Protein: TolC family protein
Amino acid sequence: MGIAAALLALSPAKAYTQGDSLYLSVDQLFEKGMEQNLQLAADRLREKMAEERRKTARTGRLPDIEIGLNEGFVGQPVIFERGLSDPTYPDSPDWSQNYAVNLTQPLYHGGRIKYAIRQADIEREIAVLQTATDRADIKLSLLRQYLNLFSLYKQHRVLSRNINESERRLKDIRQMKEEGLITNNDVLRSEMQLTNDRLSLLETENNIRLASQQLDILLGLEEDLLLCPDTALLGKAYTLESYADYIGQAYANDPAMLLRKKQTDLARNNIDAARAAQMPQLSLYAANTLARPVSRTLADMYNNAWNVGLSFSYPLSALYRNRHRVNEARRQAELYRNAEEQQKQQIRVTVRNAYLKHSEALARVDALKLSVKQAEENYRIMRNRYLNQLAILTDLLDADNLRLNAELQLTTARTQVVYTYYELLRAAGKLK
Structure:
């Protein structure tokens, strides 16, 4: 199944395969692209890692439990009753055993655990926003290649039609040459024009195969599969909202903007965490120990002891050691706040650029529609004049090239409307 069959598959319908061609809508393009993209796969792994860190941080509220098992050889004790002379060697067991269970439950750690949990939660949200940012950029990149493929198919159609027209024209010119109305020079020039068109068609077919292969690889499809884009995409109406609306949407929805805000929240949390290092710690502890021999009498018997209590500590050195760490955290928060304001400035520039480009693309389509009509009429007039010996072949070929370029420019302009619309959605944070 070749390019011609793939062209037949271009219709606004549900996805289907025909031989080695596949009709692919924009939604399916995005769906397959999101599933197969390696960058997004890495982002999803980072999300899972952040989720595990979030769960780990919550375990800080749980008690620490330790089990100790010690067994060993007991050396011969030596007792000196009068200075260091006349040592005695009492009887003692040769083996010691110690089994202990210790439990420590944090009661108050100055907020360290709370801020650690909050940090893990914010880092999880940052990972999600980073995935959303990459997803929007990847969608835009896929759409650019998708629309390029559509332009190539349209170029193939125009060239094929132009070749058919050139073959009919060459037949008429040869007939006119046999009748002695024109010279052989016109025949040769027409044949050269037809050869150039056929070479352009071959180049376009190769470009279609290359563009399809690139998308096939990105979408996880067979590399020799010819993809057929959705022609209905160009027929949709793409309306513009106000510039202020897009700015407001970008501030509220743009993943990059939300990412900056979360980074600022994380920096503020780090300030609280640094302050918490200066606060006292209070914990509940409990322990039980089973040991032999009895440590005081060395009697070869087990001794079981348990205790419960409160542990309180206050890091006085943190009052002077931690001060600079708190100041550093404050500067970090100011730095992220500055980055947030820079992102707002960048959003205004990006949205304005996308807004004007989309408006310009819409205006270009309206202007080129008229140009195509004029080029068609100009070619019709020049063809009739040439057949009536009122114009030379150069004028006719120029009119034909003008018509061809006008149609290709219109196709490019229409695809640009689609791309700039999605680019505007990306700038406003609505392409996720």
Summary: The chain has a mean pLDDT of 86.
